[in-house]
Amino acid sequence: MTDTLDHAKRALRAELRERRQQLSDAQREAAAAGIRDRLDELVDSLGATSVSCFLSSPTEPGTRPFINAAIARGIRVLLPITREDGLLDWTVATAEGQEIESVYGVPEPVGEVLSPIAVNDVDLMIIPAAAVDRSGMRLGWGRGFFDKTLGSMDRRPPVYAVIYDSELIDSVPQDVHDQPVSGVVTPTRVQDLSTDS
């Protein structure tokens, strides 16, 4: 990655992080409720019975209401566990699931650890993002876990990034290893995006 590209990504992430930190608790709760409803719609439209999702950090659009509702509906939900090699292990979410803070400062589930290939069987992947552009390119938070996971999959299911409405933007800086998504889920809509994958 060139210094210019790295600087552009860092600057955009810092701006987005600051915007997220400005949101009130009421705005976060409303966003989480909207995300739950939109993800429920997406799961229903795809007929998904097994999904991967993530435990949202305090500033991210909340995913826990969706995860709890999905478990109650009998949908199998896999949650990621970070590894030192940059890949992700997985565990099956449970209604009374416990979590810890990872070494990266993000919530991580506690449970029986499944290997990185466990995600190959899901019908839908729901992943975090800092922003996504209208062509489907995703800007993550710089650790590369989801880019590596997506890049290593032979058969990729639909992949949707969870973001706030204002984070669907015209373009994001991208590098060769960055992976596109199929669409985005915001508190107000599900939007499919054109990608080359």
Automatic annotation (TrEMBL):
It catalyses: (6S)-5-formyl-5,6,7,8-tetrahydrofolate + ATP = (6R)-5,10-methenyltetrahydrofolate + ADP + phosphate. Pfam families: 5-FTHF_cyc-lig. InterPro entries: FTHF_cligase, FTHF_cligase-like_sf, NagB/RpiA_transferase-like. Its EC number is 6.3.3.2. Keywords: ATP-binding, Magnesium, Metal-binding, Nucleotide-binding. The keyword Cytoplasm does not apply. Belongs to the 5-formyltetrahydrofolate cyclo-ligase family. NCBIfam families: MTHFS_bact. PANTHER family: 5-FORMYLTETRAHYDROFOLATE CYCLO-LIGASE, ATPASE INHIBITOR/5-FORMYLTETRAHYDROFOLATE CYCLO-LIGASE. This is 5-formyltetrahydrofolate cyclo-ligase. The lineage of its organism: Bacteria, Bacillati, Actinomycetota, Actinomycetes, Micrococcales.
